[in-house]
């Protein structure tokens, strides 16, 4: 139950141990405000959750995942570009107010699941998201859940509603070792481009890089632009260490992977091309600055 949303069914409050007389007293005192049959909210209720319930559903999909990210699991990855309030509509709930702001109705595969709480669980939200976000984004979301929460694929499959073949195939491409959305998407795109990709290759007894393609290590930064001083120094130490072992390192940002993939792929192809093998061509203008002429 998403306690922090501030929106509850009366049944949820009773299950939490609130005596019905206490609930009625709180309603009279306006500490709990009725927002439709069987639903109440507190003063501090999350506005997106209130609008979802008043529109006749639950906050779901990317909206519910963002909610869980904010309140419990900060490392769940949320793709950008989904700012609408994603609501999973209930057949049994009445609309008490028109949706405010940009809304998106979503529903998972199979028979609609009942709405019993104002915010969908991670599993139900993931089931809805399978029909809203791209396959690549969905895998990156699930990778982040597997990597940063105690939730497993069987947990998700048990509670998300119908698991279609398409969704099963997406699950098969997920990887719990992924450390960031950028890494997940880079991995999927490299595999699609025909590369054999090693995930979290060892670079020392206790350290791993994000990805490797042949002798090229690929390190993916998270969405946050700034890295702190310690990790800045650590990145450079790793680059020196791996260079000694004849690895090359390419560092990719979120924007590189999301918005300049063609350019990145071209660079990776140039580096990994079999016939390249460190032939230093002084006629290549990009190399001139590196040659001690
Ligand atoms: Zn959605």
UniProtKB/TrEMBL annotation:
<protein>
    <submittedName>
        <fullName>Type IV toxin-antitoxin system AbiEi family antitoxin domain-containing protein</fullName>
    </submittedName>
</protein>
<dbReference type="InterPro" id="IPR011335">
    <property type="entry name" value="Restrct_endonuc-II-like"/>
</dbReference>
């Amino acid at each position: 139950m998403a306690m922090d949303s501030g929106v509850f069914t009366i049944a949820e409050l009773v299950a939490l141990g609130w005596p019905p007389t206490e609930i009625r007293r709180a309603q009279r005192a306006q500490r709990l405000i009725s927002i439709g049959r069987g639903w109440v909210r507190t003063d501090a209720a999350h506005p997106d959750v209130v609008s979802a319930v008043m529109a006749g559903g639950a906050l779901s999909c990317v909206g519910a995942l963002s909610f869980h990210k904010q309140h419990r699991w900060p490392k769940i990855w949320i793709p950008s570009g989904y700012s609408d309030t994603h609501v999973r509509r209930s057949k049994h709930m009445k609309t008490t107010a028109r949706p405010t702001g940009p809304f998106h109705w979503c529903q998972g595969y199979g028979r609609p699941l009942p709405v019993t709480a104002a915010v969908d669980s991670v599993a139900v939200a993931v089931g809805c998201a399978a029909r809203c976000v791209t396959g690549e984004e969905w895998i990156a979301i699930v990778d982040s859940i597997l990597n940063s929460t105690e939730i497993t694929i069987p947990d998700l499959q048990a509670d998300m509603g119908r698991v279609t073949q398409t969704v099963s195939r997406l699950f098969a491409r997920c990887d719990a070792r992924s450390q960031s959305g950028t890494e997940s998407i880079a991995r999927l795109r490299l595999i699609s481009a025909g590369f054999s990709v090693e995930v979290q290759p060892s670079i020392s007894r206790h350290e791993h890089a994000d990805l490797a393609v042949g002798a090229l290590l690929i390190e993916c930064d998270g969405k946050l632009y700034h890295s702190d001083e310690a990790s800045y120094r650590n990145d450079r130490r790793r680059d020196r260490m791996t260079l000694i072992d004849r690895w090359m390192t390419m560092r990719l940002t979120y924007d590189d992977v999301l918005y300049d993939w063609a350019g990145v792929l071209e660079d990776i192809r140039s580096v990994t091309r079999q016939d390249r093998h460190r032939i230093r061509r002084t006629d290549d203008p990009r190399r001139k600055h590196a040659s001690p002429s």
